[in-house]
Amino acid sequence: MLGSSFLRFVLLINYIIIIYENEDERKYKGKEKIRKYCTAEKKYDRIEKVEKKKNGEKKMFQKFYPSEDINSTYDIDFESYFEKGYRGIIFDVDNTLVFHNAPADERAKALFQRLKKIGFDFCFTSNNKEPRVKKFCQDVGGTHYIYKANKPSTKGYKKAMRLMGTNKENTFFVGDQLFTDVYGANRTGIHSILVKPMNPKEEIQIVLKRYLEKIVLWRYRSKKR
Ligand SMILES: [Mg+2]
Predict the structure, then answer these.
(1) Whole-number mean pLDDT of the chain?
(2) Which of 65, 77, 83, 185 is packed most tightly, with the most Cβ within 10 A?
(3) How far does residue 195's CA lie from ligand 1's centre (Å)?
């Protein structure tokens, strides 16, 4: 009798212990789940933050990316652009068509004769002063020019399209600087072609800009690869 009571007591204790242990384990698993969830949440937050930063950087750089980069203005297949439906071209002058402040040479004159033959209208849009831009335009047989355009302001680009009677869809831009030329064209919403600057010897403020350009170009080219 005493033996069976003792046995029942032991079984009861055993049962309580099992319940207690299960409960403990359940609690532990719950806590573990929460911990894992929190860690995952933190990880997710961290990933989201990094992504946001990356996207921000991407956007920061992207606004300077040209639609295309071509070695030289003289390598551009202008005929194919005409076939695609383009009718107007906005050109930067210095270091895009000739060396900085250099007069129009035979190559430049021939290019603009060719463009006229194809059927293009063109406009020179430069941050340089009037005598420089006007003379260049006249020498190559052009009609439209904008001086002190204050690129990357969009005003010069818009005025150029007004002068040519073209629009954002059928106009493209050619220039050698990212932060003025290409950025301005992008802000205007027109196709932009970046060409390599013609003159390797440039003024100090442009040399500094070129270093910054290199960083953006490196990212642009690595994205293209
Ligand atoms: Mg230039």
Answers:
(1) 89
(2) 185
(3) 9
Tell how far the Cα of 18 is from the centroid of ligand 1, in angstroms: 83
Supply 16's token pair.
Answer: 């309580």
| Residue 56 half-sphere exposure toward CB, CA atoms < 13 A | 6
Ligand 1 centroid–CA 109 distance in Å is: 18
* Ligand 1 geometric centre to CA of 205 (Å): 13
Q: What end-to-end distance do the CA atoms of the chain give, in Å?
A: 88
CA atoms within 13 A of residue 106's CA, in its CB half-sphere? 0
At residue 116, the pLDDT reads 98
Low-confidence ranges of the chain (pLDDT < 50): none
* Beta-bridge mates of residue 191: 172
What is the CA(116)–ligand 1 centre distance, in A? 22
What would the pLDDT profile of 69-123 be if each residue is shown by its tens digit?
999 999 999 999 999 999 999 999 999 999 999 999 999 999 999 999 999 999 9
Compute the distance from residue 48 Cα to the ligand 1 centre, in Å: 40
Burial class (CB in 10 A: 0-12, 13-18, 19+), 53: exposed
Measured distance CA(158)–CA(211) in Å, rounded: 29
